[in-house]
Batch of 2 targets.
Target 1
Amino acid sequence: MACASCTTKDGSPKGCKNNGTCGTDSCNKLTVFDWLANMSLPNGEKPFDFVEVRFKNGRKHYYKNAENLTLAIGDIVATQAQSGHDIGMVTLSGELVRVQMKRKKIKERPEDVLKIYRKASQKDIDIWSDARDKEEPMKVRARQFAIDLKLQMKISDIEFQGDASKVTFYYTAEERVDFRDLIKVFAREFRTRIEMKQVGFRQEASRLGGIGSCGRELCCSTWLTDFRSVSTSAARYQQLSLNPQKLAGQCGKLKCCLNYELDSYQDALKAFPKADTKLYTEKGTAVCQKTDIFQGHMWYAYEGEWMNWHKITTDQAREIIAINNNKDREKIASLEDYALELVEEAKVEFENVVGQDSLTRFDSPKGNKKRKNNKNRNRNKNTNQNKTQGQNKPNTQNKPNNKNKPAGQNKPNPRKKPNPRNQNNKPKPQAKDAK
């Protein structure tokens, strides 16, 4: 963002700390690096007598140095205006100004050229800074006046002229607005000349600035000077979902960055057959459903079987189209024959070295893990101690105690059959009585 247009009041930027009067013009919005500054002119050549001057929010104009003043980048100058004078800062001088004017098609006609009066004095700077301090509270009041009159417009910014003799109100509106009553209210309340200027939504975003969804400052407020039209076909070429919340920028229009890679996508799509070309097979007619520009694959589905997609390469699709376009109008058997030839690349599964694969790794604090580990250690210690104690002591509970048993329990069980293999179990022969 520009130093002079930052919202910090009574403070200097953190970088150069010059509060908008940088000697190198390095922190200004839409700055241009003078790569011809160290080059000397040939003998007999005069330096280019035009200078680039920047005003609030990156507004730049080119003025003629008719008085041959020694101007450097960062000088505050008083420039010619339609009525009175304006105060701005020199941002570029030398031969590079000629290149910029040629690029922007600005002619050096005497009737269209504005001049630089002088270097700004301390009185000019004080009037200019006091007028800049009035802009923010005046903008709040102006918006309230527009709301009271029920006008369908938004006053986005206010800019004072350097001599505080005129105020320019920048507004945005979707339809034509009759603001004649509003100008009367402004003139009565602010006691100055009023100028209303309508700007587009993209120009409003470039003047106000901000942070985009990418995390960086808006392109229109930093380096982008021309606003090209952006259409939804740019998103279709890049196979982006037509979601207005994601494709629209802060200005409410389609993002300018959709045009940055559009040429690369269009060049890559030249190797693909047209998506509306059908493939004719004996099994049926196949229609293209999806394309993958990066891998060079296309998905086709038979008419009536829209749920079953068959993936083939672009070379195979062109081969099938060439067969269909022969004189004999031949047809292939089916797409499955070509789809089977595609070998899926094995996905490389990377091992998790850091151990941050779990999404719930931060749910429980570290202290709880230590407590759980301590509890487990104590449990293991107790179980080990019980085991060692049980090995040393005799187990008296499981041993039979014959003394405590009542009589008759030691008798043999009559129901138990004797084991014939065991000789001890054989009944002893009884002695006969002697006669």
Target 2
Amino acid sequence: MQGVNRVTLETAREVLARTPEATEIDLLACDLNGILRGKRVPSASLDKIFSEGMKFPRSVLCLDIWGHDVLANGLVWECGDGDGVCLPCGPGLLPMPWSPRPRLQMLTMMSNVDGSPFAADSRQVLSRVVERFAARGLTPVVASELEFYLMEGDSAGKGQPRPPAAPKSGYRLCGPHVYSMEELDEFDAVLTAIRDACDALGLPSDTIIVENGPGQFEVNLHHVADPVLAADHAVLLRRAVRAVARRMGFQATFMAKPYGDAAGSGLHLHCSVLDRTGRNIFDDGTPAGSALLRQAVAGTLALMPESMLVFAPNLNSYRRFQPESHTPKTASWGYENRTSAIRIPAGDGKGRRLEHRPAGADANPYLTIAAMLAGVLHGLEAGLEAPPPAEGDAHDQTGRRLPITWADAIRAFREGTILTTYLGEPLMRAFGECKVQERDVLGRRVTDVEYDTYLGCL
């Protein structure tokens, strides 16, 4: 399938020949939490990387958020914690423009040692969903919008986020400055460096805007007719943003809600579907879009409750779902309606698409796109009919309430029956157990606010 393994040894050799000063390569694999793990190897090992791959335990891609084994996932004691093989994939051998020493990087995807796909690798899971579209002669077209915060450079070390001072004039950021051109100018150096990094990596970056929170920005990526590559782009963008910010004295975070009283950060996805002739099946020449568009909407709404743990994977994720916010709380849809979970943007019919809005910026892009596409395909395969579109505030209208607490989302994920048929039982088990372990560990932690509130008076 196009996009699963785009890179070849020949093209990688060409890149290495053009950058002989790069003596090391970062080999990267995305775990279930969206964290990149891997190894740094000598560039002289390039041929070996393609012939033998990068080996490490399959359980490494299924660690919890702290990097601990998840013993209940069946990948450690039950099967001897065996190795997987990660082979190069995706856009190929790429630069690391933020590195003080010239280095290259390359995405990999894990298979079992017998060459079969490792079914709990999130990239493999997305690839399988896309293959199901291909079997029907369909090609999803996907783009992502990623929001993030820039903070003072020592925020992570001190354990508290702090908005940065404006680099040029020195004023401390406060309040929403959404779409502020002045703030873009203030942060011109770091934002330009992020744009330059995108260009160096071949990421199809589009607009960069100031968002609602203090120090919050958004980078949009162009649509590509390859959802796996679109997810590669999102993963590489997150690495680039964090690395560039660190190099320039800031801390960047894709945490869903770093400030309790400021806007959360989302991962909004845009999706259309092409048939064998390249025609957008969501377009029928009218502003309402085709019946197939409404079937796709119906499928995404049907799978949304049991997919919420994918879209909002962490304890902090659920702080986005607050009253009077644009984060959706119901499985709803509407035309040009940002209060709904699925928005149908206005515009040219050839670009008719749906915008998927529940996911946070902390979600794994491969799994998020896979779950969204599973909903689209479910709607098309079952010929589902969408409910009437929401008008006005979708939060106040009758629609299926989403599980907007972590416990409810874990329960819906584990009790659901449809999502498993698309993502597979190994992934569902590994991801579900990963989140249960994270919830249980955090449930035993007594927070500072509890001490501040109760210790002195009870």
